[in-house]
Prior knowledge:
It is an enzyme of class 6 (ligase). The chain is an alpha+beta fold. It is built from 1 helix and 2 strands; from the N terminus they run αββ.
Amino acid sequence: MPQASHAWRLALAFREQxxxxxxxxxxxxxxxxxxxxxxxxxxxxxxx
Length: 48
C-alpha cells in the first residue's frame, strides 16, 4: 500500500518537525502514537 507508507512518512516528518520546534520539558505529557481502528495514523497526548 504505497499510499499508507507515504502517509506514514509524512506523519513521521511532521512529528519530527513539531518536536524540533517545541522545547521538551520533563513534565510534558507522554505522546502516544499509532494506528486507530480505521487505520489512520494519530499522535495524541491522551491514552488511546
